[in-house]
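Let us practice reading a record.
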Amino acid sequence: MQEYIDESRIITREVQLRLLQKRRQLCLSYRTLGKFFHVDWSTFRKWEAGPAGEMTCRNHFREMLNRYLNGEYDQRLTTLQGPPGDLLEGWRALPPQVHQCMECITSAYDLCQPKPVLQEQLLQGVEDATQKALQLLFSPRR
């Protein structure tokens, strides 16, 4: 097993990029990975996107993260998330930018939980942007 995170438990920029690539490869959300690792979703996000070289993980997560990066959990993780059957294949076929956008919206929605009005504004903004894009797509060209 390759050791991406050593005894220092420091998460380097290289490890962060590998975490990002692995999460996108498996089409996983921070929430799913948080549940799998028994941490809050924001902890996994910090491992992946926090200040490189300053982020560390607790010792008992070091081996789990190394196993995750080595692909030992791939099969288990792919069964934890997403819609069943054909819908899952459609979900995986979406470009990474769509997954990233959905993850950002989900994270923002979760963070706005104490303020339901902000949650509604976020959802309305997404709906408005979607409607505008569709109108532009289907409007006759002049």
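A brief commentary: The chain has a mean pLDDT of 85.
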